[in-house]
Amino acid sequence: KPTFSQPPHVDWLTGAFSRTPLLRKTTRLADLSGVFADVSGWRHADPQQVVYDVEMLDTPSGSGELFTGVTHLYPGKVGDEYFMTRGHFHALREQGEVYFGLRGSGLLLLQDEQGEMRLEPVFAGSVHIIPGFTAHRLINTGTEILSALAVWSSNAGHDYAALAGGFAWRVVEEDHQVQIREVQNG
Ligand code: PA5
Ligand code: NI
Q1: 69 and 125 in contact (C-beta within 8 Å)?
Q2: Which residues contact 182 (CB under 8 A, 6 or more apart)?
Q3: Nearest residue by C-alpha to atom 13 in ligand 1
Q4: Distance from CA of residue 131 to its chain's centroid?
Q5: Distance in Å, CA 87 to ligand 1 centroid
Q6: Greater model confidence, 61 or 164
Q7: CB of 85 within 8 A of CB of 147?
Q8: Structural domains for the chain
């Protein structure tokens, strides 16, 4: 006889999970040393300012399992550069991921191992197939919270160090417009 169990619930409008055990990670400006171009702007900003929260379903890990999480990326800038996630390759490079835009507006920055880059707009209902061997970063170019749901292989892992040189392009606000700027001297 099958057992009956209540699935987790996500509010598609806000990305809020309810009635389920969650893992939560908050990333503040203080945690993002070296991530924003404007070092002096970063130093003078409130280090306790929350840049993004990630909430994950507390589900099994291990080969073949999938993780599900929502990133809530707050609006803001350091200097003229929009708030963004740190960004990463997966430790298991071949592992892809799917992002679903839920609310707000922003960009998904993708960069492969050859340094080839791509940007996709993120908005409520957008679906992003992140291929393997591709670093990914969310950027909030709007004035509201940008929330995106992600599903990825639980053994993919995060490799932040491989991107220590950073992404080759930055997304900034210039003359009240979203602009991309090539990073000088790496
Ligand atoms: O799995 C993912 O790609 C996301 O859940 C990210 O981990 C999340 O958006 C936070 O970004 P980062 O891990 O680059 O700090
Ligand atoms: Ni990822």
Answers
A1: no
A2: 168, 169, 170
A3: 87
A4: 15
A5: 6
A6: 61
A7: no
A8: 9-182 (2.60.120.10)
Q: Answer whether 97 contacts ligand 1 (Cβ < 6 A).
A: yes
Q: Contact at 8 Å (CB) between 107 and 171?
A: yes
- pLDDT per residue as tens digits for the range 72-117: 999 999 999 999 999 999 999 999 999 999 999 999 999 999 999 9
Which protein residue has the closest C-alpha to ligand 1 atom 8? 71
Is ipTM strictly over 0.95?
Answer: yes
- Residue 71: CB partners within 8 Å, gap ≥ 6? 52, 53, 54, 85, 138, 146, 147, 148, 150
Cα(5)–Cα(125) distance, integer angstroms: 27
How many other CB atoms are there within 10 angstroms of residue 137's CB atom?
20
Residues in the chain: 186
Q: Which amino acid would we find at residue 33?
A: S
How far apart are alpha carbons 165 and 150 in whole angstroms? Answer: 25
**pLDDT surpasses 70 at 186:** no
The secondary structure element, H or E, covering residue 24 is: strand 22-28
Please tell me if the CB atom of residue 147 comes closer than 6 angstroms to any atom of ligand 1: no
